[in-house]
Amino acid sequence: MLDTVLLAVGPGDEDRSERLAEAVLTVAQPADATVVLAHVFTSSEYDEVLERLEFDRTLEEIDPDVVAARHSTIRELQTIFDEHDIDYEIRGVVGDHGQSIVDLAASTDADRVVVGGRRRSPTGKAVFGSTAQQVLLSAPCPVTFVRSDDSTSGH
């Protein structure tokens, strides 16, 4: 049974958010599953986002869930899920991308993880990026990898 789908996005996923949403809708909608919509930031990415979104950094602590909710990729995915009446919760995580996704999949009891990645050069096509590879090998549930359809790039 599919109750929880973890969709983990990061800074490279802006251009593939629609494809990621489609992959999630395909599995979550028929099962009436809840989506954990997570944005994973490294420490430096988190600092950049806090600066760009003009968070008050004098506050004691800024909740990563709040930061994630204000990020454009998450807002775009929220709009899509709202249009399709999908239940979701937003999570923000700061840490190593791959390990953070694996840990979040375990802590949310995810039944499926959906992650994105980029198209590789001909010699790199057989090898996923390190984040995707870590999630595929270590997640406690099945993983769906959504490759970007980046045919305009010279890679």
TrEMBL record:
One Pfam entry name: Usp
InterPro entries named among the record's database cross-references: Rossmann-like_a/b/a_fold, Universal_stress_UspA, UspA
Domain UspA: 1-147
Domain of life per record: Archaea
Record family assignment: Belongs to the universal stress protein A family.
PANTHER family: STRESS RESPONSE PROTEIN NHAX, UNIVERSAL STRESS PROTEIN UP12
Protein's name in the database: Nucleotide-binding universal stress UspA family protein
Originating organism: Natrinema hispanicum
